[in-house]
Amino acid sequence: MEFIFLLTMFVVPIIASITLINGFGDIFGNMPTDIWIKMGLTSFLWGIGVMMWSKAINHIGLSLGFSLFIGTIILVGSLLPYIEEGLPATNVLTTILIGLAVVLVGVFANGKAGLLREKDEANSSEKKEKKGSMLTGILIAIIGGLLATGFSYANAAGRPYLHEACQAAGNAEWITAVAVMFPIFISGGIVMTAYFLWQLSQKKAWGEFKTPAFSKNFMLILIMAVFHYAASALFAFAAFKLGESGNTVGYAIFNTSCVVTAILSGIITKEWIKASGKAKSFLYFGLVCMVVGIVIVAYGNGIS
User: Fold this and answer.
1) pLDDT, mean of residues 169-173
2) In 10 A of CB 57, how many CB atoms?
């Protein structure tokens, strides 16, 4: 886990930024202090939010924890860019809000399906997983989701300057997405790295890195880190190409697509094979709602 964050938050972003961005030093060296503060602080909060989500799972399980966390992110994170960009026309905003509401119905239907599946699997197994306080877990998931929306705000706050600076340095349009991700990942990585260093020391687990499979694991983690960074950068570029409400629409579509992909992967890998018919009904209903919701959100962006 520690290597995942080290490679994802530092190694890959630093190498990609220095290699791909013409005028890297000048662009970030001349970036106004207020933008550094906005991006750095909100990205730092994003890192804390991700850590809190992992803690919420210990209390309320993966299904409910993920649904509350990602639901908060989609609702709040999709609206945060309007703080920087201003509200769109009423018909556009109304349509986007309707789409987000449909997406949220789907996310929580998925959470209900997950809870039913966990119950089904617990009933068929003698081993009961001990969890913590439900109320504590719910609060941690929601607060973590609120903090994690810092990713969305940091993108909206930093892109205008970074786009202009990258263009002035002769970079292609898509390079702006790489530039935006650099301060976000570095700032978020600071809190994540500090947390895992503390965890390793507390659990005295430093010696567990010595394993015959270290080289293989390292390469697999590196590949995953590259794809994770590429996905985030693609979101930033897509948000720019989507136009006036691109940050809102792009963020909603990006996160909803992540959930839909996870659900489809679970179905393909037979993760739901032991789930009851009721659990699967909630799952499929949630999947349909999320797809319909992002279509409505995309339509709202189109009429702008």
Assistant:
1) 96
2) 19
